[in-house]
Amino acid sequence: MHMDFSGLDSLISLSTEGLNFAGLNMYLVESRGGAIACMLLALFFLGTWPAILTLLERRGRLPQHTYLDYSITNLLAAVLIALTFGQIGHSKPGMPNFITQLSQDNWPCVLFAMAGGIVLSLGNLSTQYAWAFVGLSVTEVITASITVVIGTTLNYFLDNRINKAEILFPGVGCFLIAVCLGSAVHSSNAADNKAKLDFSNSYNNGKGNVEAPLVKETFPKKNETKDVEDGDYYLEKTEFGTADFLIELENKRAIKVFGKSILIGLGITLFAGVCFSLFSPAFNLATNDQWHTMKEGVPHLVVYTAFFYFSISCFIIAIILNITFLYHPVLNLPRSSLTAYLKDWNGRYWAFLAGLLCGFGNGLQFMGGQAAGYAAADAVQALPLVSTFWGILVFGEYRRSSRKTYLLLGSMLFMFIVAVAVLMASAGHRNTY
Question: Could you tell me the CA-to-CA distances from 31 to 18, 56, 161, 290 in Å, in that order?
C-alpha cells in the first residue's frame, strides 16, 4: 500500500520555536526568539561557573588543580554539542555537518576559531586569580563591560550592521555606566571592610598581619565551650560580613590577598577583559568569513565545528599553563605536582560541573549569536547579575556593609538589567541559512 509522506517535513518542523530540525537537517537556531532563549540560558550558565571556582578557592583548593579539572569538562561539553546538535541528520550543500567538515580545506577559519579559544583561555585563567583580589562581583562587572564596549563594537561591524545601532549603542552606554557604578561599589565596600578590620584586635591595628580569630566550639545540648584538642565538637561559625569572617576567610583561602596592592588584581582584571573582548569577534570571523580567507566553494564553518576547534585550543593552552603553574606557581601560591593534582579529589566534582556550565554556556552564546548577530549575543555579558546573586547568597559579599554600598550595588544591578534588555532588543536576523 502506497502512503504519502510529502507533508511530513512540515509536520515535524520546529521553526516556530526557532529550531530547524525539519527533514533531519542540522539542528540550528534560526529565529530571533530562539536566539534570545539561548542567550538567557547562556547568561545563567556563564554567571554560575565563576561562583563555583571562587567557592573552591575560598575553601583552600589550589586554582591550578581546579582549572585543570574545569578544562577537561569544558572540552567535553564542546565535543558533546558537536556530536549531537552538529551531527544530526545529513549534510546539505553549503551546510555540512560536523564530521563532514573536519576533512574540508577550511583551515583559515579554523585558525580564527582557535585564536578565539586561546584568548578566552587566557581570560578565564586570569580571572580565577582576579576574583581573590578584587572580588567576584566587581571582577565580572569590569571584564564584562570591557567585553561589551570593545567586543560588541567589533561584532557590530563584522556582522554587517544587522543589529539596530540606535538600540545597540545605548545598551553599550548602559554598560559603561555600570562600570562606573561597579567601581564605586568596590571602593565603598573596601572602605567598609577596612573599617571593620580597623576595629578588630586580630588585625594588629591595620598593619595587615593576620592572626587566626578565636573560634568557639559548642555541644548541641550544652551551653559550654571546649578546646579543639579535647575531641568532638561543633564549630560556631563566624557571621558573614564581620571582621572575624574576613580574617577567617583569608586564613582558609588558597590565594592570600591581605597586604597586597589592589593594583595587582585590577591589572589582572583589565587584562582578562581585553582577552574576553576578542574571543567573540574571532569566533564571528571563523563562522562567517567576513575577510574572505576561504577558497571559493568551501562552505563556512558551522557554529558546532568552529566551537569544537575553539575549545580544543582553549583546552591546550589551559593544560600547558596550569601544568607550568603547578611547578612554578605565581602570587606566592604553594608548589604542587601532577601527582598531587591527581590525588586531590577535594572539590573535583564541583570543578567538573563548572567546566560543563562554561562549555554549554559558550556554545549557547555562539548558537544565539549566529542567528541574531554576535553583537546582540554579547548581552550574556550581563552575567555579573548572576555572579552577584551567587556572591551575596553563597559568599556573604556586601553583608553588614554601609547604606552607601547597598545603594550603589542596587544601582549597578539595575543598570545591568537595563543593559541586557537593550542589547537583546537590538537583535537582528542573519540570512545565512
Answer: 4, 39, 18, 22
